[in-house]
Every structure is written in C-alpha cells, then in structure tokens.
Amino acid sequence: MKLSALSLVPVRQGQTHKQAIDTMLREARLCETLGFERYWIAEHHDINAYASTATQILVGQILHQTTRIKAGAGGVMLPNHAPLLVAEQYGTLATLYPNRVDIGVGRARGTDPMTARALRRQATNHEQDIADLQRYFGAYEPHSVNAIPAMNTQVPLYILGSSTASAYFAAERGLPYVFASHFMPMEQKQAIAIYRERFQPSVHCPKPYVIICWNIAVADTDEEAHYNNSTLIQLFLNEQRGINIPIQPPVAHIDYYSASEEQSIAMQTAGIFIGSKQTVAKQYAKFRQEFAGVDEIMCTGYIWDEGKMHQSYRLFKEIVDEYENPTRSKQ
C-alpha cells in the first residue's frame, strides 16, 4: 500500500500565512522522510482557513525543498483555469524537476459563486479541458497552439471525484482515480466499484489505479486522538454554518445546533482513521478487507499541534508497514 499526503495549507488561529506555508513545507519534508509517494496541495480560494490558492507556486516550493517525493495539485480546479496556462505552469515545473510532478484535476470551483466570478472563467467543457491538457503535455504539433515547455513532459493526470459521476468519467478516459473520502465519503464504495468495473485501459494508465483520501488522527490514546480531531469537526461545522475563520484549537466538547447537524458532521467525517495505534491498526485491517481495490491512501488531517500532527503521520506509517510487512516489522 502506497501512502501519500494532501494539504490545504491550514491556517491556524493566530498564524500568519507565511507561518502556515512554512508549517506545510515542514510536513512535506516529513512525508518524504517517511517514504510517502506524493504530496499534493488542494486549490481553494477566499477561505480564511486555507492558504492554498496559488497551488503551482506552493508545489514549486515543495519540489525545491525536497529531493525525491512527487508533488502536485490535488487538484487543479479546471473551471478556474485555461488548460494552456495549467500546462505551461506544471510543464515548467516538470522540466525543472523531471518525473516528480503530477496533478489531480477536478471540475469544481473550490470556492463560492462570487469568488468564482472574480476568477473570470466562463463555463467550460470538462472533458475538452482534459483532452487539451493531455495534448499540451504530449508531442509538439506544428500549426497548432503548443504549451512551451510542457511538450513531451507527459505530466500524469489524475481524475478527482467525490461522487459516482466522476468514477464513470475516470473509467471511460482510462485515467487514475482519486476519491475525496476525507470530506465526502458517502459514495466511496460505489464509486470505486464503478471505476474498476468500467475501466478502459489507455496509454496513460493500462490498469485501474485508485487513490482514496482519508483523514488521519492517530495519538497515544483514543481520547487524545478524538480531542485532536475536534479541530477538524469545528472546521466542517464552520463551513456548514457559513463561518469563514481560520482553523481553531481543539475543544473537549462540540456544541451542535441540532441532532441533524451532528448527524451530518458524522457522515462527513466518516472517512477517518482515528484513535491510538492499537485502535487504528484494527481500523486499517478492516479497511484493507473492505477496500481491496485501493492502491494508495492519501492522508490528510487538521491537528492543531504541529508536533502531534507529525506524530499522527509517523504512527500511521508504522501501522501500515506492520500490517503490510508483518515479518519485517518483527525483525
């Protein structure tokens, strides 16, 4: 099982944006040390909890400050960008850092309607945008528009999704698929099954490849893990309530407005490994049985204390290694 990580560059209450970005870069270096496959930045706009607006710039910084781990956007929200510009930006990064750049592409805006209008992109055809990107990363074409220096970089594209609709699209296009269980886990099993059943091999991806993004909150005890994860619950609650503020510190008790609100948050946060190392080890074993078709887990989380966030990733990596390589882990 490969592991990777996703960051929205969370801005903790009281942090500057520079501090938030520096925190993210330290996490990226940790993930490289742990042997993670890739580290992605998610594009969001006009949200005070995140500093992940200019993803290509942050990806460049990650590549500059690491030596092996792949870096990319998870994702590029194509309705916000001209495919030519996306290809030029990530093609330039791929030229500077060969074989280390990949990008997830999504059809959502990653923001509210007013901010979306400020981005000045009219309605686009998602399928055509994907085709354009693939062409720009391919061979030079005389008498046509070319993305310089993106030609022949063959930057890999991954289809992002949080519903079954994206599964059909990824399967038909023959591209790897990333499901956003970290905030919309409700249709994850159906989407993965559809993708694998309907997958059409392509030159870009000869067989199905599934990445599932889950929240990670591992600590010394179950109680501490749930306490740490209250930061994530507050984040989701604030989003549902339309409160646009930075990430908040953990609390011992969550004040829900209603039972329906509590139920909604429980559904939204179901995609999580949470608890002590012993507890999460059991959760992971169950996950491997239920999600046998998953090739990679993309970890994310919103633990307030940076050291405890790092510990969560280290402990989860130990859990995965001990499950996948039981003989080696006992040596």
Q: Which sequence of strands runs across the widest sheet?
A: 1-2-3-4-5-6-7-9
Could you report the average pLDDT, rounded to the nearest whole number? 94
The CATH homologous superfamily of the largest domain is called Luciferase-like domain
User: What's the tally of helices?
Assistant: 12
Question: Main traits of this protein?
Answer:
44% helix; 12 helices; 15% strand; alpha/beta; 9 strands; eight-stranded parallel barrel; 2 domains; TIM Barrel; 331 residues; single chain
Structural notes for this entry:
The chain is of the alpha/beta class. The chain has two domains: 1-155, TIM Barrel; 209-325, no CATH class. Helices cover 44% and strands 15% of the residues. The protein is built from twelve helices and nine strands. The protein has helices spanning 17-33, 55-65, 83-96, 113-118, 126-136, 164-173, 188-198, 222-241, 259-268, 277-290, 306-324, 326-329; strands at residues 2-7, 38-41, 70-77, 103-106, 157-161, 177-179, 210-219, 272-276, 296-300. Strands 1-2-3-4-5-6-7-9 form an eight-stranded parallel barrel, surrounded by six helices. Helix 1 packs across helix 2 (55-65). The two termini are 20 Å apart. The mean pLDDT is 94.
